[in-house]
Amino acid sequence: MRKNVWIAAAMVVVLGLIWGTVWAAEEEMCVPMGTITLEPLSAEAKRVAVEFPHAVHFGYNCQRCHHTWNRESAITGCSASGCHDIVEVPKSEDGRPAKDATLQARYFKNAYHTMCIGCHKEINRQNQKLQATRILTDQKLAANGPTGCIQCHPTE
Ligand code: HEC
Ligand code: HEC
Ligand code: HEC
């Protein structure tokens, strides 16, 4: 019994050392390869969180999405302070959505929808064009992501 405790303790120390080395080596940046769960910022979210397959998008330049990244410092999340950090639709004094486009882009939902749905819709448009001439070109349609609400927010 005692022996097992010592073995366990030794393993913790060894794992700690290995992890420490890996950590030190990769301190520069840890890139999430699988699915990133994009949580709503709003306290009372209307939709469920979005499962975003990050690496599926690595055919694009990283800066297509991480548009403020300078390729030197670590990448920060989209809702870092001063970025897309507003929780509700920015309104002007008369209660209507504010006209200022920069302010609207700070509302996290607008930022994500413009980027995610914007790109998927653009690909659909290109595919439709291609489809209209496909008999002539025989080119394959491009793979694409979802544009419908429940495809990204699976349940209510
Ligand atoms: C390509 C994926 C995608 C599609 C399609 C999409 N959304 Fe979103 N939506 C997101 C992401 C990403 C966020 C920000 C993270 C989050 O809230 O989970 C978001 C945020 C939201 C929010 C704010 C957070 C909340 O839950 O209150 C609402 C409301 C919303 N979406 C509604 C919709 C509706 C309605 C549609 C269909 C017209 C739609 N979305 C289509 C990806 C998508
Ligand atoms: C299609 C858009 C898109 C592309 C392309 C993309 N990413 Fe991301 N990445 C995201 C989103 C969205 C997140 C989640 C950010 C958040 O949680 O606020 C993220 C998160 C990250 C994070 C974690 C940031 C944190 O919050 O700690 C790193 C690191 C990262 N990406 C690196 C990369 C690298 C390197 C590339 C290029 C190979 C890349 N990304 C390409 C959209 C993208
Ligand atoms: C610059 C264009 C672009 C942007 C921005 C983009 N996507 Fe995509 N997305 C794609 C393409 C292209 C595919 C198809 C990739 C494939 O199947 O090879 C895709 C696929 C997907 C899929 C389906 C993956 C699968 O395995 O079926 C989801 C879900 C998705 N995207 C969500 C998002 C979300 C959420 C965002 C915003 C955070 C986003 N995308 C931003 C281009 C984009």
Question: What does the model show?
Answer:
The chain has a two-stranded antiparallel ribbon. It contains five helices and two strands. With 156 residues, it is mainly α. It has two domains: 1-30; 32-152, Cytochrome C3 (Alpha-Beta Complex).
Helix coverage percent: 40-55%
Order of helices and strands: HEEHHHH
Largest pleated sheet? 2 strands, antiparallel
Secondary structural class = mainly alpha
Named CATH topology of the largest domain: Cytochrome C3
Total of helices: 5
Question: Over the alpha carbons, how many angstroms does the gyration radius reach?
Answer: 22 Å
Strand content: 5-15%
- Overall residue-averaged pLDDT value: 87
End-to-end C-alpha gap? 51 Å
Per CATH, the class of the largest domain reads Alpha Beta
Low-confidence stretches: 20-26
- Hetero ligands: heme C
* Strands, total number: 2
So, CATH architecture of the largest domain? Answer: Alpha-Beta Complex
Kindly report the name of the CATH homologous superfamily of the largest domain: Cytochrome C3
Counted up, domains total: 2
